[in-house]
Amino acid sequence: MTEPVVVLENVDKIFGEGAADQVHALKEINLQIEQNDFISLIGPSGCGKSTLLRVVGDLIQPSSGGAVINGKSARQARLDQDYGIVFQAATLYDWRTVAKNVQLPLELMQFSRSEKDRRTQAMLELVELTDFAAHYPWQLSGGMQQRVAIARALSFEPSILLMDEPFGALDEMTRERLNLELLNIWRKTDTTVLFVTHSITEAVFLSTRVIVMSARPGRITADIAIDLPQPRNSETRSNVRFFELETEVRNALRISEGGQAASRAPA
Amino acid sequence: MSESRQRIWAPVLILVALVILWETLVTAFNIQQFLLPKPSAILGNLAQVVVHGGTASTGESAAELSLGNRFFVVLPGGLTPEIEENLQNARWVEFPFGARSVSVVRGSNLTPILAASWFTLKEALGGMAMGTLAGVAVALATTRWTASREALLPFAIAANSMPIIAFAPIMNNWFGIDNPFSKMAIVTVMIFFPIMINTLRGLISVDSRSLELMRSYAASDTEILFKLRIPNALPSLFSGLKVAGALAMIGAIVGEYFGGPRIALGVFITQEAALFRFASAWAAIIVACLIGITIYLVILLAERLALPWHPTFRA
Ligand SMILES: Nc1ncnc2c1ncn2[C@@H]1O[C@H](COP(=O)(O)OP(=O)(O)OP(=O)(O)O)[C@@H](O)[C@H]1O
Ligand SMILES: [Mg+2]
């Protein structure tokens, strides 16, 4: 029996000191993610999705509670280079060309030269930026920069992919194509994905589970299993179950935002 | 294309207009040459046209000297052994004007001015190299050890606002007035702070997401330094270098005003001014300015080569 990849127990995150500017970004988060899960996080802006991702990735420490990743501490998982992260902003290095940006993790992880070149080539083909290999980030559009960041995160086949609205800046066609490519990679490798999105359709299409969050304090309000058949493809979207699940997620979101409004009223 | 040509020609035209205005104003108001010499007089110090064929028109008290079958006219100031030697070594350019030829003499003052400039330039460059090395080294060290940064930064900022040139006589005293190292020391101290502070700023003002990216790959501090901090610091290092380039010539020349060997540019300028040879003092000052501009342009070129990725160089 394989152990869960991510276990979050009673994770709380409070930003800021002093009552006035305190933000309760995460409250009592309990979450268990199994190997080969594809989890989408969805919720209103500012509800703590990025914060949750950053706690899992050991980029910030929770105020209380704990995270166990692949049976070890989040820090150890980070040191073991288990994470591939796509941030909400592309975060490319200005002084590196597109190809060199994709190669950055490969350089740090001491891949051989030929392997580095092979993977860079393959990743650039995947995100259709082969012709821009020698360009610098400022010569690219926002969506192209985001595709470079995706290629960079996938290049070293991390065991856990943390993706913060990776396709937010892309056009519909590219988005759908990269959705399929991501599912392809996910299916072929042992990757576990934690994926933040604002698109209900995208969340349902990609995921094995959709986690719905509410804001202030950021809590998990629903955990919806997506029992659509694998592999997902263009037919998935016309499945009746797909629409049912979309509606279920939409209702859960509405309740979470409504609950937020209700809890605001008496205060 | 035409735009970049305009960018070159517009300043050149303004410069020419200014020089013409200067020349006419000095002539029109009959300004004494010790106040402000004419540009033509200053340039006359740097390049003297000597008409070949006995029709020497430059200066009544000119001494004539024959070398081989050419005539050269030496302007007021007479024939010193130094000048004579310069004439022997001078390079000649001949233009076939009319029946006879015109020879351009690299004039009697150009050679000493160039020799002095070279001497002073070496001081400036030596000081720049040492100051840059020291500034970058301290910036790197303070990046690694944050505690030392907190402790050192207030001193650095205080030191940066001190008139370091005031220490020039002390440096002359420490290292010996004729020792070029005394001037290099002044330049080193003068440029240390702009280099150090600019480099440090570039090393530590790293975008927090970029740093998180490195952390997510479990990159070591050394890897973060070489792959993130140093590339991030290069643009501000170059801003520091541009400031330093201007300071370096100032430091070396002003250091020489407080004393130095006779072949130094600062000493040449003070001596010529003391002897009322203002045109040649001005000529030396203009050469110093040209050297300063050249240093700046070289740094600009190096910046372009080192930072091809920088958005300011968008084609
Ligand atoms: N470093 C920080 N310091 C202080 N407050 C923070 C910090 N990071 C996030 N917050 C706060 O925590 C809350 C959750 O932020 P987070 O970025 O996780 O939201 P999000 O769900 O990702 O929103 P979005 O969908 O807009 O990206 C916000 O109210 C934000 O102001
Ligand atoms: Mg976010």
UniProtKB/TrEMBL annotation, chain A:
UniProt-listed Gene3D superfamilies: P-loop containing nucleotide triphosphate hydrolases
GO molecular function, one term: ATP binding
Position of the signal peptide: none
Keywords, alphabetical: ATP-binding, Nucleotide-binding, Transport
InterPro entries: AAA+_ATPase, ABC_transporter-like_ATP-bd, ABC_transporter-like_CS, ABC_transporter_ATP-bind, P-loop_NTPase
Recorded superkingdom: Bacteria
SMART domains associated with the record: AAA
UniProt cross-references to SUPFAM superfamilies, sorted A to Z: P-loop containing nucleoside triphosphate hydrolases (SSF52540)
ABC transporter domain mapped to chain residues: 6-240
Pfam families linked: ABC_tran (PF00005)
Protein name: ABC transporter ATP-binding protein
Top-level taxonomy: Bacteria, Bacillati, Chloroflexota, Caldilineae, Caldilineales
From TrEMBL, chain B:
GO biological process entries: transmembrane transport
PROSITE patterns found in the cross-reference section: ABC_TM1
Transmembrane segments: 12-31, 124-145, 152-172, 184-204, 237-259, 279-302
Stretches assigned to the ABC transmembrane type-1 domain: 117-299
Key words, A-Z: Cell membrane, Membrane, Transmembrane, Transmembrane helix, Transport
Coiled-coil boundaries: none
Location relative to the cell: Cell membrane
Membrane topology label: Multi-pass membrane protein
Superkingdom of the source species: Bacteria
CDD domains found in the cross-reference section: TM_PBP2
PANTHER family listed in its UniProt record: ABC TRANSPORTER PERMEASE PROTEIN HI_0355-RELATED, ALKANE SULFONATE ABC TRANSPORTER-RELATED, MEMBRANE SUBUNIT
Pfam families on file: BPD_transp_1 (PF00528)
Protein name: ABC transporter permease
Family to which this protein belongs: Belongs to the binding-protein-dependent transport system permease family.
Lineage of the organism: Bacteria, Bacillati, Chloroflexota, Caldilineae, Caldilineales
GO CC field: plasma membrane
